[in-house]
Amino acid sequence: MSDKIYNGEFHYIELKNGIRITKYVGSSANVKIPTQIDSKPVTSLDSATFSSDARKNLKSVEILGALTEIRSDTFSGSNALESVKLPASLKEIGAGAFKYCTALTSIELPNSLEEIACGAFKGCTALVHIALPDSLIEIGRRRFQKLYRSPRD
């Protein structure tokens, strides 16, 4: 499968049940993930969606629509990421998806969420509030490891 390009900002592949965004090539610090591409729902964000350069500048992300999966390390190391709006359809947050997002102070997890994989929020040292929904079935190990800074850090 080869990537296609949408709106000059998103590379994607077509899946059986929708679209997986594979790469963001735009330059905005405030990214809005499209709900549909080619009349198909965007259902997944790939691990390599945001390059290391894009992660340095990323301040906010808004994800709406039918997205069900944020794959491993999607936002990992996005040090400037302050806010994320997740869709009501989200079922899975992959391993390390928000690892070391050190500016992220809170995140609202949707009631549809069933799985938070290993180390999903590891090193999110500014995260002061996170409410776990009743819908959770599986929570991976070390998902909130190193959330706080000790006086020696």
Please sum up the structure shown.
By secondary structure, this protein is mostly beta strands. It is built from one helix and 14 strands; from the N terminus they run ββββββαββββββββ.
Features:
single chain; 153 residues; mainly beta; nine-stranded mixed beta sheet; three-stranded parallel beta sheet; 1 helix; 4% helix; globular; disordered C terminus
Write down the Rg.
15 Å
SSE string, helix = H, strand = E?
EEEEEEHEEEEEEEE
Helix fraction, binned, reads: under 10%
**Which percent band covers the strand fraction?**
25-35%
Task: Write up this protein.
- This protein is mostly beta strands and about 150 residues long.
- The protein is built from 1 helix and 14 strands; from the N terminus they run E-E-E-E-E-E-H-E-E-E-E-E-E-E-E.
- The relative contact order is 0.13.
Describe the SSE topology:
Blueprint: E1 4-6, E2 10-15, E3 18-24, E4 30-33, E5 36-37, E6 40-45, H1 52-57, E7 60-63, E8 69-70, E9 83-85, E10 92-93, E11 106-108, E12 115-116, E13 129-131, E14 138-139
Parallel strand pairs: 3-6, 4-7, 6-8, 7-9, 8-10, 10-12, 11-13, 12-14
Antiparallel strand pairs: 1-2, 2-3, 5-6
